[in-house]
Amino acid sequence: MAKGKDVRITVILECISCVRNGVNKVSTGISRYITQRNRHNTPNRLELRKFCPYCYKHTIHGEIKK
Predict the structure, then answer these.
(1) Domain extents in the chain
(2) Do 11 and 38 meet the contact criterion of CB atoms below 8 Å apart?
(3) What pTM did the predictor assign?
């Protein structure tokens, strides 16, 4: 069994607004979530609206490279 071409892969989602604007002066850090996606159903990069505790609102979290 080859493990290199699994259908479901683990991806990391990172807050786009924290990365672009730099993080708030009060709290340091970047919001990241770990999830899985199906390689056949979603071939392009995944973007989801998730809650960012550093921005204190729902923002778009985009897939990053590992």
Answers:
(1) 7-18+28-62
(2) no
(3) 0.77
Report residue 15 as tokens.
């807050």
What fold is seen in the domain 7-18+28-62? Rubrerythrin, domain 2 (2.20.28)
Regions of the chain short of the pLDDT cut 70: 1-4, 19-28
Is the Cβ–Cβ distance between 57 and 51 less than 8 Å? yes
Contacts of 46 (CB under 8 A, 6+ apart): 11, 13, 35, 37, 62, 63
Residue with tokens 């993080």: 23
Cα distance between residue 39 and residue 60, in whole Å: 20
Q: Please name the residue that has the structure tokens 């479901």.
A: 8
Residue for token pair 């204190």: 56
Centre a 10 Å sphere on the Cβ of residue 50 and count the other Cβ atoms it contains.
16
